[in-house]
Each structure stands twice: as C-alpha cells, then as structure tokens.
Design goal:
3-stranded parallel sheet; 22 helices; RNA-binding
Length: about 525
RNA sequence: GGGUCUGUAGCUUAGUCAGGUAGAGCACCGGGCUUUUAACCCGGGGGUCGCGGGUUCGAACCCCGUCAGACCCGCCA
C-alpha cells in the first residue's frame, strides 16, 4: 500500500474528519525541499479523500515569525528589521535592498511559491499566521499558556534538555520599534501583556491582536488545537528526539487539545552538495524545477519515495531515469490478479504513486503520457530547432500518430529550457565537433576515410534535405562496398566525436551545408 | 554525550508495520528488427538483504548487539 493511503487509513481510525496541515516560514526563497513538506501533507489529504474520508488541507504561513538575521541575499539595511515579524517588513529588491513599495517580505516569497503550487495541482487553504493572531483566535491559548507558564517552561527544559532563561515567557510582545528582540515582559492582566523594550519604552500588547506571538515551540502546539489539526508531517529537524514535535505534544495537551500523531519526513538534498539552503545558494526553486520537468514528474519524485527516505534531487541523468520510469509505468501500469501478497502490495504501491502524481485529483494517469522517452526527446530537441520537424520525426518513428498532445508539447518546451540551462547532463549533450580529433583519426580505417572523402564531394553538390543526405550515405557505402555500419561509425566520429548517436542525417541537415563541409575539410 | 532515521544487484529501489520460495526498473551482455533516431522487440547474467548473535519449523522482516551514513538536541522543510 502507498504510504499516503496507509497514513490515511491510520488517521481514519483516530479521527472522523481530517485537517492535514503544512507550515513554512517565508524567510527566503522557497525551494524544492519545501515541496516535500507540502506534497507529503497534500498526498495524505488526497489519499483521505480517495478513501472517502472527510479532509481539509491547510498551509499555514509563519508570517508572524521574526527576521532572525540578515541573510546572505539581503543588504545590511535589513539589520534594523531583525526581530520584526516578516509580514511587517518590506520585501527585498533583487539587489537585496528593501523595496518600500514592493509589499511585505512574507508575501514577496510566498506568492511565487503559491503560483508554482497551483501548477503542481496543490490548492491549499492558505492561513497567514499573523491573521490568526490578529483575529484573536490565539487569545485563549495564549492566556492558558501564560497561566501555565511554569509547566511549559518545565516541559521544554525536560524534554529538549535545554535551559531556558529565568525571565522566559510564553509570549513575545512587539516593542515600540516593531521588534520582538529585547522586549521584557513586566506583567500580565488578561488580555494585556505589559512590557518594557530595549529603548526603555513601556507598553502593553493585546493578546487578541497581532501585537506579539508565542515562541515557536508553543505556537506550534497551540495552532494544532486552534485549527483542529489531525496530521502535520514535520521535517526531521522537528522530529528529532527532544525537538519541537516532542515538546509540542504535551504542550498541546496542556493547552486543552489533542495533538496530531508524530510524522517525520526526510529532507531533499541536491545531489552531491548536501542539504538545501537558501543562504548558501545551494538551492533549486520549485519554479526552476518546473521549467525542467512537468509537474506530474515533480510529484512523482515525492510520491515514489517513502517519507523517511532522503531524496537526492539530481537535475542530471537520474532525472531522465525517473521521468522515463514514470512514462513507462503510466503507459504500462502494473496489473494482474492472482498475485501473492507481496506482489500485490508492490503493485498497489506503484499504482498509488501514479494516482497521487496526477496534477488534478482523479485524473487518468494515461492523459499525461507523452509517448516519447525523455532521452529520445532530448536528442530530437538538440538536433532540430523547429518543433514541427520534431513532430514529423515522431510520426515517422511511430511514437505518435498525428498531432502531438498537450503533454508532449509541454514536455518539449521544458526540454528546450533544460538543454539551454546548466543542469542538463553532459553525457546527454550532443557536441558538434569542429574537426575530427587525432584520437578519432587513428580509429578510422583507410576504407572509412575514403568513404568520408567520397561522401564529401557528393554533399557539396546535393540538395540539402534529410532524405537526400540519408540516400547519399547509403549510396556511398554501396558504391564502395563497405558495411553501412562502418560508414555510420566514421560519420559519428567525425561529427559528434563518438562512435554512435542519433540519426546522423538529421544532424547534418540541421547543421547546414556550409558548416558540414567545414568539418569535413578541416579534418582532412 | 543523548537520540532519530537509513543501509536489499554496479545504480535507483519494492517487500519490513500484519515472519512463509528476495521482485522491479536503469545500466550491462546476447539476439532480433534494418534506411542505425541514444528508437523499438525478445532473452540473459548479476543479491551471504551492512555485520554478528538470539527467538522461531521458518527471519530482509521480530529482539539484542555492532558497524557505516544522514540528521537533530539554538533557528532551519
């Protein structure tokens, strides 16, 4: 059974209806790591719906979280905003300076991410956490937390093993300058928390407003109750023993609610360069990823991997493999009855992955079949600049019959992006040689050499079309009575520097007469 | 130091929760097709399930130990 279906089953035994949640702090550019958070939750949500379990999926944006430091992509001017809720500070310009007309910081990073989610078929109910504070929905929990301040203090110290300062308080008010840093609580009388800030200014915060927030570990536990969350997969950082999940459970209970069960997912790493991090620039954004691969394959990458396994996201060769694997499975899904238990489980797991990879819930996976492997399309896209030529070629090779479908058109345009970008795998790249290198010259026999020279004279005076060129190659091998294979190998060595490759006549046609002849004449 | 997760074929992995003959794909090798598209079709080899013990009629699966990797215990998906 697929992990999402399994989780859905488990949840249905505990609660009648589900609220599945994700939570992310919009402190910088979103990356595909965040996509795992979102998709893990969203797939469980879909699995619930598919099992006819009532379910809602919410995405809580931690817009009240303070700016913790000046990240690498920000200018020094952000120093003054440290400690401010992200929703209250200006968005950065591309150069990192604050843009006072550009809306707030949280939204700046959130909006493009939501756009990407739409394309991936994720339509969450978005909850801006600052609005939950501002609406007063947090007030009861804040009051309870303050009343139980010592117990919460103890829970955090005991479970996380970390010492909290004496003056620790389960509510951080915003001071006179807008920052939560250096604000000391001096008293509490419902609904006001009074304080003195680092400038010596005194004031009070209304717990029914966004005048402050609870610290992370308490905030998280409180919101489980406020939204009635039954499942919130958490990154393994939160899942560690003594981490915020472990402290959240008793705190949530203390605040009068039933916590969700613990569920922890592994991180996505960029192959070879460790965990993703916006500050180190070691990141691929969801938008960038969508420019390379179709959304269903992005979903498939998450769906096919068990939650507790880490994913190496590799924009190179293994992306080809995964994409082709998807294509294969979709066009030829596992089936059959009378299987033993293990095979049935395996079959259902794969079918589950395909089902959950669909952009729209309930879509027939076969609609996303492009009918061509990524590898093959990559090759065509490199040797043919005109899309129509590619459709013609695919018709000729019987990959498609007639006009290309939408899936295929979208795939080709992404393929062209991929090829142009830095992420395209080198071994799939076709490199046209300037001339034959010495190493390859040695590989060539005398007959092959004669073949190439003879072909050259024919090419100089022919009509430049693929069928003509193809014909000339075959004619020449016949005339010289050499094995056609030998002739092709010689041509491949000459033009792309390897002894095999895609249909050579296509490449030559695409190169044009002048350039082709150049390669020939520079080589001999 | 304390803890969590992961370890199955060269690579990616299914199967571990409910013990019952280790199963795929990629890659590789061989064959076919033949106008050589890196396409397509057929076949094949390849696994002491990290290691050691225990429980059991029977262990990849349960228990104990051990090794390796990743991560957490301030903030991070």
């Amino acid at each position: 059974m697929h992990w999402a279906d399994h989780t859905a089953m488990r949840l249905s035994k505990q609660y009648d209806s589900q609220v599945i949640a994700s939570g992310i702090t919009p402190s910088g550019e979103f990356h595909i790591g965040h996509l795992r958070e979102i998709l893990t939750a969203e797939m469980i949500h879909r699995a619930c719906l598919d099992a006819e379990i009532d379910s809602e999926y919410i995405f809580i944006v931690d817009s009240m979280d303070p700016l913790r430091r000046v990240y690498g992509f920000l200018s020094e001017e952000y120093q003054e905003y440290i400690g401010y809720p992200l929703v209250n500070i200006p968005a950065p310009n591309p150069d990192g300076t604050p843009n006072h007309e550009g809306g707030n910081y949280a939204n700046h990073f959130l909006q493009p991410f939501l756009e990407a989610l739409k394309e991936i078929g994720v339509h969450p109910k978005v909850v801006m956490n600052h609005e939950t504070y501002d609406s007063g929905d947090f007030a009861t929990k804040i009051d309870l937390a303050i009343q139980n301040k010592d117990k919460i203090h103890e829970i955090i110290e005991n479970i996380s093993g970390r010492e909290l300062p004496e003056e620790w308080f389960p509510y951080n008010p915003i001071g006179s300058d807008g920052s939560m840093d250096g604000v000391k609580v001096t008293g509490y009388e419902i609904p006001y928390v009074s304080w003195i800030d680092r400038h010596g200014v005194e004031g009070r915060s209304d717990i029914r407003k966004a005048d402050g927030k609870m610290p992370w570990r308490v905030d998280w536990a409180a919101r489980w109750g406020i939204h009635g969350i039954t499942c919130e997969p958490a990154g393994k950082d939160h899942g560690a023993s003594g981490g915020s999940f472990d402290t959240g459970i008793p705190i949530c209970e203390l605040l009068g609610s039933k916590p969700p069960g613990k569920m922890v997912y592994e991180w996505i790493q960029l192959k070879g360069s460790g965990p993703m991090s916006s500050s180190s620039g070691n990141t691929i954004g969801p938008i960038e990823a969508l420019n390379l691969v179709p959304p269903e394959i992005l979903r498939y990458i998450i769906a096919r991997t068990k939650v507790k396994k880490h994913i190496d996201f590799d924009t190179g060769p293994s992306l080809f493999e995964t994409a082709d694997e998807y294509e294969r499975l979709v066009s030829n899904p596992p089936s059959g009855d009378n299987l033993n238990k293990k095979k049935m489980v395996a079959r259902d797991t794969i079918l589950g992955s395909l089902r959950l990879s669909q952009v729209n819930r309930g879509d027939d996976p076969s609609k996303s079949i492009a009918g061509v492997s990524f590898r093959h399309l990559a090759m065509l896209a490199q040797i043919k600049s005109n899309d129509q030529d590619i459709w013609d070629s695919l018709n000729k090779s019987k990959h498609i019959n007639g006009e290309p479908n939408l899936a295929l058109i979208g795939r080709l345009s992404r393929m062209r992006n991929w090829i142009e970008g830095a992420h395209f795998p080198e071994n799939a790249r076709i490199k046209i040689q300037e001339k034959m290198n010495d190493e390859n010259k040695e590989k060539i026999t005398k007959e092959q050499r004669i073949f190439l020279l003879s072909l050259l004279t024919k090419l100089e005076n022919c009509v430049w079309s693929e069928s003509q060129i193809s014909q000339l190659i075959r004619d020449t091998t016949k005339e010289l009575e050499i094995n056609p294979r030998e002739g092709y190998v010689a041509l491949y060595l000459l033009i792309i520097g390897r002894d095999y490759g895609p249909r050579i006549a296509s490449i030559i046609t695409e190169l044009g007469k002048e350039e082709t002849i150049q390669i020939f004449s520079k080589s001999f």
